[in-house]
Amino acid sequence: MLTLRAYEAAAKGRLPGPVWDFLAGGSGTESMLTAGREALDRIRLRPRCLVDVSRCDPRTELLGARLAAPLGIAPMAYHQLADPEGEVATARAAGEAGALLTVSMFASRSLEDIAAAASGPLWLQLYWLKRRDLLADLVHRAEAAGFRALVLTVDAPRVASRPRDAANGFAVPPGIRAVNLSAEVMAASHGSRDGESAIARHSMQQFDASITWDDLAWLRELTSLPLVLKGVLTAEDAELAVEHGVRGLIVSNHGGRQLDFARSAPECLTEIVDAVDGRCQVVLDGGIRHGADIAKALCLGADAVMTGRPALWGLSHSGAEGVAGVLRLLIDEFEEVMALMGAPTVADFVRSGVTLPACRHS
Predict the structure, then answer these.
(1) Structure confidence at residue 32 (pLDDT)
(2) DSSP character for 180?
(3) Fewer Cβ atoms within 10 A, N terminus or C terminus of the chain?
(4) Which member of 202, 254, 290, 317 is catalytic?
(5) Would you state the pLDDT for residue 214?
(6) What is the pLDDT of residue 357?
(7) What is the pLDDT of residue 191?
(8) Which residues pair with 354 in a beta bridge?
(9) Cα 197 to Cα 15, 23, 104, 108, 357, distances in angstroms
């Protein structure tokens, strides 16, 4: 497998149609599935010459965790849809590659089993459920298992309408479930109905859409783990996040699965980096498909990037080996870009290293 496109094609051929649609699909018109990719493609690199690049070092740190490269896997539910070992295989692969793994609260393997398989840093992603006791239990379990941070997804007070899932009447298949939460709480995600997504129905029942910035204090008081917010797309919210003690922001469009017609994550990145001004770390999630995308994000001020679907493509292809192959491809491509850009360390990627597209006026 020489490209991520090859992994994607293989995954599409292996996975059942409704599962592929669940993993690949987007919300509404699906305009956001390509928006981030298109934004990244419009950014061009400005290489420097006659720099000693005989040794390039892609290593970095993110919230105190050492990484082999500024790369992590974004949170995604139910990895067992792609491989029977699920998140355990993904954790092994991430550790082998020296990448961060963010585990979804809807993981199909237990937090403890995932942690036992991991040799690299783990973060735990949360949606804010109406049952705060369940959130507290997950937080305490994650801390005891050695997770390094909490990631609260803030762009999903409810799951947006996803036409492919509704058309398929998609529900989580028998034999796969979010094992870190009770069967009672997750029941709605398993009931298939024609013309309706069980995932969306579950979110309407269980997600608390009433939370505000003031509620973050309750979550922060539960634990000493740093809090990261995922889904922030404006400077205003970035400022509020810093004021409320948030240690990291993941600039993300939720894989094109939430607000349709929003600005893409890459387009929002510089605005957010400038707003936080070094007071918290910033990660770009969305459309990362080549090592050059990592370089572009770093030039725009990100501390790291996350990739989502490609990890599941690799997982469906050959389990842990496939995920590791995807991560190796991205890291190898990034190291090549480092050499050709005249940027032998992560710190050498600065804003002058890219040319941004001119503003378009109607």
Answers:
(1) 98
(2) T
(3) C
(4) 254
(5) 97
(6) 82
(7) 87
(8) 45
(9) 19, 13, 19, 19, 38
